[in-house]
Amino acid sequence: MLICCMEGCEFNNSISNDEHVRCWLCDEYAHAKCAGITDSVVEMIEGRTGLKWTCETCRVVKSQMGRFMKQTRTEITELFREVRAVYEKLAKLESHITSHPQKPIYPVDSDSSSNPLHTFEDTNDDKEVEDAESSIVQHNSTNMQKAKIWHHNAAPVVLPLHTNPVILKAVPPMKAVFVSRLVTSTTEDALKHYIVAKLSYPNPDDIIVRKIYNKQRRKIASFKVMAPDPIYYTILNPGFWPKHIIVHEFVNKSLLQTNVEFIKYC
């Protein structure tokens, strides 16, 4: 026996005849008379003409669903509009960059191109980069001053010929690892001794350990470990450290700030 879902049903909520309708959302039943529907409308619903009946409870849900779909469609349209604006800005920026090709200031030697030198991008130590750049500027200014003095006062000097060329050696690239959740009493020397002893590394001077000091006092100690490529991935492996130690690639805050500014520009 079917049950009428309408409040105040005149038939004690019991459906015993064929004059009833069914909600297309929740499949609840109701008398045609209780639903306020005429016999002709019932025939149209049963005839699958596309006409459907909705109970009072589902009418509220249907209204809320309609508003939700409309709001969602509006938000998606706005999101696509923002994405399109960002894409257009990136396209303009790419066009501007490609229209101004960068040419090398000095001619590139074929011998030097086959053996590229390591640049400052191979290291994560910003202080070493700044010191090296300052040293280069001072060295260039000193050479220019000497050239002026020689031009006005000195006689030409014949440089000695070297039979054996000087072999240049590059500093191996360094990469940084962030190590944290150590006790506050841990020192830089203790952490370095742990790494060197566990790896049996023959050149301890290649490993640089610096403690990170925060403005707010914390119950844990964090360190920045600079290491060459051969041992970098070994140190980066969590299995290399005791339990509960956090380790991951060190990320400079300046790079994060640059990414944030780029996103704001877009």
Description:
The chain has 266 residues and is of the alpha+beta class. Among the domains are: 2-54, Herpes Virus-1 (2-Layer Sandwich); 65-98; 174-263, Alpha-Beta Plaits. The chain is 44% helix and 14% strand. The protein contains 7 helices and 8 strands. The protein has helices spanning 39-46, 56-98, 110-114, 126-152, 188-199, 229-236, 253-265; strands spanning 2-3, 14-15, 20-22, 29-31, 174-182, 208-212, 221-228, 246-249. The strands form 3 sheets. A 4-stranded antiparallel β-sheet has the order 6-7-5-8. It has a two-stranded antiparallel sheet with strand order 1-2. Strands 3-4 form a two-stranded antiparallel ribbon. The longest helix is centred in the first third of the chain and has 43 residues, at 56-98. The chain is elongated, with a radius of gyration of 38 Å. The two termini are 65 Å apart.
